[in-house]
């Protein structure tokens, strides 16, 4: 007979510290008190092992553990059969995506929900054990058998026979220079197996980068080189892990074009992406991953990209009958704010800053108390210089800044060479660390307590980003400047970051200037916006802060891109170039539709 497991227990090994607690979980477990082996001590690790057969699910161990190391999870019925489990009390994956040749499939889900596990299985690095972690399989026979009759059967058969080649674009492209040395041109020539060098160089705007060395590239340049190198190689299955971090809006859409060209030639493409407008433009279909990060992950059925993203936004998957978030994400269409509304926190005349090599001009403007102003435009166009002028760190060549404000700044690239733990880092860099406000308004929502003991050097991109946001918000400032706070955060973390920033700005009677390239995030968070244009590295111009509709119109007009709103969720969606909507909106001069 089959045991249907509806409950699993997860032990977070990083958190569990038996030396400090004297095994409270074991001492209080009612099963153990009845002399059963409900929880035993693992001889190797000295950490508890919970028997899921014997556990009654009373939750006493969870409550008693001083380090919140144990989670008892009731699985939803829709989870289905397990595909892989790493070990006792460890993460379990349910389901796999359905691959299809000639299409781009998107994966949408939180960090820690199983996306890399899926990738490891599909690329042949991990043979799934169907939950039976005590008998890890040595070959693919059981897997091929399990998927009999589905498209995955052929896939795994070919994979096991070495007939499938996978090509991967990794998430953390800033690590690339450590493994790949030398000139970009040589690297790309070496992998130009599909003879597409000219096409990708042009579309990804790599002409000026070809003669540079890998170690001298910025993050955004490395990202584009990594996408190019992936697309150039010959394979059957291509996998892109977050291809858009550090790219500006037009570079994101160029990346979409280049990645889609693989599908158009019949390849299977799988993409993880948290920028919803990009995911939308990139994918034919998506699978949503839900569950509990670090606990279990379930792959939803395949959904068309529009309905799938809408379901994610609404927080409810109707086919599966699963709620993934308590409330929908709401996009409010704000009426233009009157220009003279609010008290100015900072005001400035027309400004001009001449560095010799680079020149920035800005139209006179104001930043109000309690508002969030987003700034868009490409990289290297003077956004940081502008903030330095507001802060009085740099003096303008011409013009005046009325009252200099104090600024707290989170840069785009976060350096992780700090020696020490996250709590050491906060102790040294976050002035309000230890206060009640920091704990409840910053640390808890950004889930920093999960990583306090970890070395900063070992953090993932998303963890590092949350740490940097927290440290910035802990400072007492008048303007909080964030450069690309969404990089490496999943959709849920982006929303949380938006809320945390909003709350701190309002409680401090401050303002925030946010540079970002995720249009859906910008739409969600902006009170007003300003546009930077010009030539990266040469000159830049900053418009005055204005309402989102005007700013978007100017910005998108320059890029020749139009966005409409989804009828159901009101989220922004990019129009295909020269589609009916695209031409219609351009005729009306409405590059960013407020209604539909
Ligand atoms: P962004 O923040 O939009 O990426 P920045 O304002 O940092 O852009 O930089 C815009 C340009 O100004 C870059 O080309 C940079 O090299 C140049 N720049 C920035 N600071 C200085 C400086 N102190 N001296 C000379 N050039 C600078
Ligand atoms: Fe102690 Fe908690 Fe680990 Fe149990 S799970 S040994 S209570 S730290
Ligand atoms: Fe024991 Fe299970 Fe209750 Fe934990 S939840 S105390 S393991 S019976």
Map the helices and strands:
Blueprint: E1 7-11, H1 18-21, H2 24-28, H3 30-33, E2 39-41, E3 48-50, H4 60-64, E4 70-74, E5 82-85, E6 92-94, E7 104-109, H5 115-122, H6 141-146, H7 151-160, E8 166-169, H8 176-179, H9 184-190, H10 197-203, H11 219-232, E9 237-241, H12 249-264, E10 268-272, H13 276-282, E11 285-292, E12 296-299, E13 303-304, H14 305-314, E14 316-317, E15 322-323, E16 344-348, E17 351-354, E18 359-362, E19 365-368, E20 372-376, H15 383-391, E21 407-410, H16 422-429, H17 436-443, H18 461-473, E22 479-483, H19 491-507, E23 511-515, H20 519-525, E24 528-535, E25 539-542, H21 548-559, E26 563-565, E27 572-574, H22 580-588
Parallel strand pairs: 6-12, 7-10, 7-11, 8-9, 9-10, 18-25, 20-23, 20-24, 21-22, 22-23
Antiparallel strand pairs: 1-4, 2-3, 5-6, 11-12, 11-13, 14-15, 16-19, 17-18, 24-25, 26-27
Helix pairs in contact: 11-12
Bound molecules: adenosine-5'-diphosphate (ADP) and iron/sulfur cluster (2 copies).
The site of one iron/sulfur cluster (SF4) has 14 residues, from helix 3 and helix 4.
Structural features, described:
The chain has 596 residues and is an alpha/beta fold. The protein is 32% helix and 19% strand. It has 22 helices and 27 strands. The strands form seven sheets. Strands 5, 6, 7, 8, 9, 10, 11, 12 and 13 form a nine-stranded mixed beta sheet that branches. It has an eight-stranded mixed beta sheet with strand order 17-18-25-24-20-23-22-21, sandwiched between helices. A two-stranded antiparallel sheet has the order 1-4. A hairpin with a 6-residue loop joins strand 26 and strand 27 (572-574). 43% of the residues are buried. The mean pLDDT is 91. The site of adenosine-5'-diphosphate (ADP) has 11 residues, from helix 15. One iron/sulfur cluster binds next to helix 1 and helix 2.
């Amino acid at each position: 007979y089959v045991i249907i497991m509806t409950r699993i227990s997860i032990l977070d090994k990083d958190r569990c510290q038996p030396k400090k607690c004297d095994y409270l979980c074991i001492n209080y477990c009612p099963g153990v008190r009845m002399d059963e082996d409900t929880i035993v001590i693992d001889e190797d690790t000295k950490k508890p092992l919970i028997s899921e057969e014997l556990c009654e699910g009373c939750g006493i161990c969870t409550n008693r553990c001083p380090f919140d190391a144990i989670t008892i999870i009731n699985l939803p019925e829709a989870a289905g059969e397990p595909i892989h489990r790493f070990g006792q009390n460890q993460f379990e994956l349910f389901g796999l995506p359905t691959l299809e040749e000639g299409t781009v499939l998107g994966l949408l889900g939180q960090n820690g929900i199983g996306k890399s596990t899926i990738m490891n299985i599909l690329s042949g690095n991990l043979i799934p054990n169907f939950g039976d972690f005590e008998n890890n399989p040595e070959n693919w026979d059981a897997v091929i058998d399990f998927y009999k009759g589905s498209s995955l059967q052929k896939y795994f058969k070919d994979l096991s026979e070495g007939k499938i080649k996978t090509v991967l674009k990794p998430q953390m492209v800033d690590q690339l220079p450590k493994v790949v040395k030398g000139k970009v041109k040589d690297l790309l020539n070496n992998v130009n197996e599909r003879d597409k060098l000219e096409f990708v160089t042009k579309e990804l705007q790599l002409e000026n980068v070809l003669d540079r060395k890998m170690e001298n590239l910025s993050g955004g340049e490395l990202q584009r080189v990594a996408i190019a190198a992936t697309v150039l190689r010959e394979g059957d299955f291509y996998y892109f892990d977050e291809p858009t971090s550090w790219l500006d809006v037009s570079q994101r859409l160029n990346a979409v074009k280049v990645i889609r060209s693989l599908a158009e030639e019949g390849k299977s493409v799988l993409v993880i992406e948290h920028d919803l407008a990009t995911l939308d433009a990139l994918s034919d279909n998506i699978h949503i991953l839900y569950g509990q990060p670090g606990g279990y992950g379930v792959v939803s059925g395949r959904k068309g990209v529009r309905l799938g993203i809408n379901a994610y936004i609404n927080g409810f998957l109707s086919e599966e009958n699963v709620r993934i978030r308590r409330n929908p994400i709401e996009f409010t269409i704000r009426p233009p704010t009157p220009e003279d509304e609010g008290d100015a926190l900072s005001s400035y005349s027309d400004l001009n800053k001449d560095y010799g090599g680079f020149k920035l001009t800005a139209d006179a403007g104001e930043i109000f108390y309690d508002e969030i102003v987003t700034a868009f435009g490409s990289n290297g166009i003077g956004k940081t210089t502008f903030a330095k002028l507001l802060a009085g760190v740099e003096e303008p060549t011409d013009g005046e800044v009325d009252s200099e404000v104090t600024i707290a700044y989170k840069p785009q690239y976060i350096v992780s060479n700090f020696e020490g733990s996250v709590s050491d880092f906060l102790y040294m860099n976050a002035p309000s660390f230890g206060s009640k406000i920091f704990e409840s308004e910053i640390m808890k929502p950004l889930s920093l307590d999960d990583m306090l003991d970890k070395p900063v050097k070992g953090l993932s991109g998303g963890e590092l980003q949350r740490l940097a946001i927290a440290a910035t918000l802990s400072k007492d400032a008048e303007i909080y400047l964030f450069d690309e706070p969404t990089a490496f955060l999943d959709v849920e973390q982006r929303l949380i970051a938006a809320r945390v920033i909003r709350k701190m700005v309002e409680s401090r009677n401050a303002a925030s200037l946010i540079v970002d390239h995720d249009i859906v995030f910008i739409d969600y968070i902006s009170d007003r916006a300003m546009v930077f244009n010009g030539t990266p590295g040469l000159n830049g111009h900053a418009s005055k802060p204005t309402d989102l509709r005007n700013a978007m119109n100017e910005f998108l007009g320059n890029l020749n891109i139009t966005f409409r709103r989804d009828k159901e969720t009101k989220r922004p969606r990019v129009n295909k170039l020269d589609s009916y909507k695209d031409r219609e909106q351009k005729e009306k001069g409405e590059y960013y539709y407020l209604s539909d």
